[in-house]
Specification:
Elements: E1 2-8, E2 11-14, H1 19-37, E3 42-44, E4 52-60, E5 66-78, E6 81-87, H2 94-110, E7 115-124, E8 127-134, H3 141-148, H4 152-160, E9 178-181, H5 193-197, E10 201-205, E11 214-220, E12 224-230
Antiparallel strand pairs: 1-2, 1-3, 4-5, 4-7, 5-6, 6-9, 7-8, 10-11, 11-12
Length: about 250
């Protein structure tokens, strides 16, 4: 994989299967990285085919306390962008879950990390590969909050204020599952084979009225997943109405 050092969000990354593809991709990645991130730095890493993409949420204070809040599974992606996040991962055994959580804590402690953060791994053929660490709160942190009951932003503010974490590792438990669905913008006329080929998109229709839609998509990963978003009330419904709160858009 040829990747931009400052990249993210699926940009500045190309899979290169041979020298010719590497030589072709190199100027494109350089150009994309410079435009998107203001840096032309790139690096090479091993390409892991069809891995599980697992990210562990951690919290670390200035008193030497570091805990993990279990993991999120972001294996379902399109064009190197996450589509669905699941917490905890339904693909891990209890032993793998414990191992990855402990590994994330050790990684943060090894560099003296203080903050909320996410340590990301790729899993394939019983091997665990470190990918990167996001030194911030990610948008998907809310599903971790849902399953653990831990307010991650509150703990981050405590850390920044020089206070210790209010929780210990033995206090952290998970219950149930939480899922986040993302809406990623694409120009279907120029970039998306999803719409041109026809088969993944099973049915779509125009909204019956403002704020309502019906779509049925079929996404492919290790197993087929059917996601049906039906008649979701969005922020834009009843556009002329201003009285009272409106329901948030399902996504």
């Amino acid at each position: 994989m040829l990747k931009a050092t400052s990249g993210g969000g699926g940009r500045g990354i190309r899979r290169c299967n041979n020298r010719e593809e590497l030589e072709s991709a190199y100027p494109r990645v350089i150009s994309e990285a410079t435009k998107a991130f203001g840096s032309a730095e790139v690096f090479l890493e091993k390409c892991i085919v069809n891995p599980k993409h697992i990210e562990a949420q951690i919290l670390a204070d200035s008193f030497g306390n570091t805990v993990h809040l279990f993991e999120r599974d972001c294996s379902i992606q399109r064009r190197n962008q996450k589509l669905i996040e699941i917490a905890p991962s339904p693909q891990l055994t209890p032993e793998q879950r414990a191992y990855i959580g402990d590994l994330a804590v050790k990684a943060a402690q090894a560099v003296g990390y203080e903050n909320a953060g996410t340590v990301e791994f790729l899993l394939a053929d019983d091997e665990v590969y470190f990918m990167e660490m996001n030194t911030r709160v990610q948008v998907e942190h809310t599903i971790t909050e849902q399953i653990t009951g831990v307010d991650i932003v509150r703990e981050q503010i405590r850390i920044a204020s020089g206070l210790p974490l209010s929780i210990k590792q033995e206090d952290v438990q998970h219950q149930g599952f939480a899922i986040q669905f993302r809406i990623n913008a694409e120009d279907r006329r120029t970039t998306s084979s999803l719409f041109r080929q026809g088969h993944p998109l099973l049915r779509t229709g125009r909204p019956g009225r403002a704020g309502r839609y019906r779509d049925l998509y079929r996404l492919h990963h290790s197993a087929e997943l059917r996601l049906h978003v039906s008649e979701a009330d969005c922020l834009g419904n009843d556009l002329g109405r201003s009285d009272g709160p409106r329901p948030a858009c399902a996504g």
